[in-house]
Amino acid sequence: MNPRKLIRISLCLAVTLLFVAHNLGWLKISIIDKAELISYDSRLNATLPKGIDDRIVIVDIDEKSLTALGHWPWPRNILANITDSLFDHYQIAVLTFDVVFPEDDTSSGLQSLDRLASDELRDDEAFQETFAKIRPQLEYDRIFAKSLSDKNVVMGFVFDQNIATEKGALPKPMASVSERWLEKLPIREPKGYVGNIQALQTDNVAGGFFDNPIVDRDGIFRRVPMMQVYKGNVYQSLALATARAALDMPETKIVVPSAEAGASSNYTEIEFISVGKLKILVDERTVALIPFRGPYPSFQYVSAVDIKNKTINKELLENKIVLFGTTAPGLQDIRATPVQEVYPGVEIHANVIAGILDESIKHIPLYTRGYELLVLLVIGLLMTVAIPLLSPIGSTVLSATICAVLIGINMVVWQNGVVLPLASSLLLVLALFILQMSYGFFIETRSKRVLSKVFGQYIPPELVNELDLTSDIVSMDGESREMTVLFSDVRGFTTISEGLRPNELTRLMNEFLTPLTAVIHKHRGTIDKYMGDAIMAFWGAPLNDPYHQKNALLAAMEMISVLKSQEQKFATRGWPKLKIGIGLSAGMMNVGNMGSEFRMAYTVMGDTVNLGSRLESLTKQYSCDIIVNETIKTALPEFEFLELDRVIVKGKDKPVTIYEPLGYSIELDNNIRNSARNFNKALQWYRDKNWDMAEREIFALSQANPNKQVYKIYLDRIMHFRNNPPPNEWNGVFVYTSK
User: Which one, 140, 210, 501, 585, has the greatest CB density within 10 A?
Assistant: First the structure.
């Protein structure tokens, strides 16, 4: 396969795998989640049934009622009057309060009169007699509780998800979670609650929570929990409690497949919640999608004051489900929904109640994730293989066709009550289409010309071709990489240049630099620059090179060998013998196109680069051809190295250990290998200030190899330290104060 096509396919598969990873939960891509919410809202708004559902009526604490009856909360004798009016006059079926009454009503002044009756006026018979007659009329909580008694009423309360507050009373729970399979369900478990006072939340009055902790990240209400668990008991939502009250409180169950299989069953997917013969499709947390009918208002609203005054036509309310709530902005029961940004919270409950009664709540079953995974894989493979074979027009038609098919299937399933994911597959089609078109235009048609122009001056043509095939990972921008840098310099070049005519010097440099450059190119090196007689090169850029240390060292060793082979040729031309020193340093460095607006160069910078230059200078001190840093020595265990010293080079404050490479260990003479290891032992004695042992070993080594400069250096140092002992904290580091 053409390498370029392989890259193109790999990129497309990588994009597909990103979407697959998001589907499997390995990676979170927020834009996909946001797009999925948008696609859900679009489908919902496109298929809203709209119209008014006359089965449910909302008695509204609106501005008209607040003006007539005063600010909220109203005295509870007024609420009792409204309750009696709804049941006795209007003959409603169910009354649900989308408000909570957590505190006693003190608006009648009864507490003050009680204090007077037991204190200042306790001996006033007239007061006591009159007070005893009117006292029952001032017990507003009792009056309200009496109006609720023996009526089909659902009281609302709220759970607190964060604070362990217990205020008021809770209604009777639906069930307990004593069954082992039920304990495994991830139903929401709040920390506290705010309920109604005990007088109002009697055993014969149903209750349901109206808080909604299931709000999507964008702050939109799309789902509601049907149940929550508090201290081992299951409590129903306000909507579920109202629907059950309208159906004469049928038995309600959480239906879990294989729940009857025994306590050992680990299968805890909820199939549905049964309310008598009705089914509520929910997820594993008993959360249901809100079946919105349309924007506000989708239900009949009447003012609470009109109910109190009985000015509403009886037929509007007779045998209806009534929700007592508010649309007044100041009472803060306004929510953001997919159908409208400002939407009454009480109407959300009405939508859910209607959805339960109609069994019209849509469902996102667990198998949708598997469906989405299958679709992503099919789209990814199809577009990855097909688009490179098609023309731009053909690719566009294919992509549009895939999108149309996906949307068509999705809408058919949607109309049947199942919500399938859509945004991820559409985004994948778009991403692959853009990637394929962009790659074909920007990469394949232009990369070779650009790369040849930019890197042709640094690297050989065969590497330019390789760059063309891997251009997606090549950048001219600055970046930090682990690389190896090489510095070489001719020793005594100033004296040599002074002894030659200019044209002879030019010929000499050309004959000298050409074969050394060829060696660097051979070993995948990049020429940074020529500095007179010096060469600077690096490995690891623009192409990544996992073997940059080895390639650089082999190039350095071959450079020494090539230069020696040139000696006879130079001698016949009357040119002087050339000797070079090479410093190699590996580590992190910055690489990229650097310079000014007038001139740019692809080069490397950093402490590792500076160290390479210093190591090249040290080759003169130790009279060796090549010196490398410890990073190279550690990376190449197959080579034998002679540890030269531990030094602090000029401009640095931290010591580095420097080495001379001797060659492949397996190819070395045993005498050379043994000499290196004996010298390492001598160095340890030297650093331990054991001058006698160090001198004895190094002297023996120098006798065997009298031309080895490093032995002479240490013998001189030992002689110096015998007469001028170093301080106690001395660690064998030698500090160089010049380059």
Answer: 585
Are 544 and 622 within one domain? yes
**CA–CA distance, 139 with 105 (Å, rounded to integer):** 8
Of the listed ranges 112-116, 137-141, 574-578, the one predicted with least confidence: 112-116
Compute the half-sphere exposure of residue 494: CA atoms within 13 Å on the CB side of its CA.
0
pLDDT at 608: 94
- Measured over the CA atoms of residue 96, residue 44, residue 367 and residue 187, the dihedral's sign is negative
The tens digit of pLDDT for each residue in 515-572 reads 999 999 999 898 888 888 899 999 988 888 899 999 999 999 999 999 999 888 888 8
Q: Which two tokens stand for residue 197?
A: 């006072």
| Residue bearing tokens 């009550």 | 417
Q: How does pLDDT run across 669-687, given as a tens digit for each residue?
A: 988 989 999 999 999 999 9
With respect to residue 641, please indicate whether it lies within any of the assigned structural domains.
Answer: no
Q: How many CA atoms lie within 13 A of 716 on its CB side?
A: 5
Q: Assess whether pLDDT exceeds 70 at residue 711.
A: yes
**Gap between the Cα atoms of 419 and 193, Å rounded:** 33
Cα–Cα nearest to 182, from 238, 214, 229: 229
Smallest CA-to-CA distance from 111 within 119, 123, 101, 102 is with: 119
C-alpha torsion angle, residues 107, 112, 113, 119 (rounded to 10): 170
Query: Do 535 and 601 have their domain in common?
Result: yes
Q: How many domains does the chain have?
A: 4
pTM of the predicted model, to two decimals? 0.59
d(CA 520, CA 727): 45
**Do residues 392 and 340 share a domain?**
no
Q: Where are the beta strands (DSSP E) in 363-506?
A: 479-490
The dihedrals phi and psi of 531, each to the nearest 5 degrees, come to -120, 80
| Angle at CA of residue 520, ends 516 and 524, nearest 5° | 165
Task: State the pLDDT at residue 266.
Answer: 53
CA nearest neighbour of 321 among 92, 52, 82: 92
In-domain check, residue 334: yes
Which domain CATH number covers 593? 3.30.70.1230
Which of 325, 262, 258, 267 shows the shortest CA–CA distance to 296? 325
Give the pair of three-digit tokens for residue 111. 């507490």
Contact by Cβ (8 Å): 537, 526:
yes
The pLDDT of residue 176: 67
The tokens describing 237, both together, are 């939502």
Q: 539 vs 522, 591, 654, CA distance in Å? A: 12, 11, 25
386 lies in the same domain as 478: no
Q: Do both 219 and 114 map to the same domain?
A: yes
Peptide bond before residue 75 is cis, with ω within 30 degrees of 0: no
Q: Are 191 and 255 contained in the same domain?
A: yes
- Domain assignment of residue 279, yes or no: yes
pLDDT digits (tens, 9 = 90+) for 160-187: 988 998 999 999 988 766 555 566 678 8
For residue 423, the Cα-to-chain-centroid distance in whole angstroms is: 19
d(CA 660, CA 638): 14
Task: Read off the tokens for 392.
Answer: 């731009």
Alpha-carbon distance of 168 to 157, in angstroms, equals: 9
Parallel/antiparallel/unpaired status of strands 94-97 and 153-160 = parallel
Cβ atoms of 662 and 642 within 8 Å: the answer is yes
Residue 423 near residue 43 (C-beta atoms within 8 A) = no
Token pair of 371 as six digits: 């469906």
Q: In the block, which residue shows the tokens 């490179």? A: 388
**pLDDT score of 472:** 47
Percent of the chain with pLDDT over 70: 88
Domain membership flag for residue 656: no
Could you give the C-alpha distances from 734 to 193, 654, 655, in angstroms and in order? 74, 11, 8
Are 283 and 423 found together in one domain?
no
Is residue 239 within 8 Å of residue 349, measured between CB atoms?
Answer: yes
- Domain span holding position 68: 53-358
